[in-house]
Amino acid sequence: MFYEYLLKTAKAKGSAFVVLVDPDKVKPAQAVKLGAVFQKEGADAVFLGTSLLMSDQINLIAKALKRNFKRPIVIFPGSAYQVTKEADALLYLSLISGRNANLLIEEQVKAAPMVKRSGLEVIPTGYMLVESGRLTSANYMSHSIPIPHDKPDIAMAHALAARYLGMKLIYMDAGSGALSPVSEKMIGGVAKYAGLPVVVGGGIKDPETAGMKARAGAAAVVIGNVLEGKFKNDIIISFARAIHYKDQPRKH
Question: Is 70 exposed, middle or buried (0-12, 13-18, 19+ CB in 10 A)?
């Protein structure tokens, strides 16, 4: 089960290293090769999803990734249409940082029958968009105002409400192409105050920054845009080493 796997990975390695794959930007043949690289060089999971699905290849991409990638593939859906039984699990997102009813409950209702038929593991997830210095695709498509970058208390209160509503995971996202990632202060505050595992993504451009997010308390760090077109072994290795800060050989 992905949820237990995430918790065990974070405990053993410091944080889980997750690669975000946009099904609109990868072809099936490329996904087969990417799966092999991710498997070999230390990615713990793949999140598959996009803000605006332009193609009908999400099933094919998930299936292609699984040919060589034997760790969890998790749907990170931008809409009810991004459900495929070829994945292992699905983040059942509710955009708790916004007040747009469509993304608080309506898309979830539309998706529910498809999710049930899929047999996917479902992880109820409180999704929060965080101000990043620019208008991101997620902000635009969600018609919502992100949580201010310098207001960790607002994020903490939202995350605690998510816990009381029965959600199992918090996903804080600065958005695709963000200028600034979620701060360590906000990550640590939310993780401690809400007592839920925290996933962080958006605007993380180098391994050093990724390691800082992991050490701040993120159970998983998601890397996406910075890897697009540069899925090389050494880059994947560098991110894996930084995020897996507990899993490094001791220096003598």
Answer: exposed
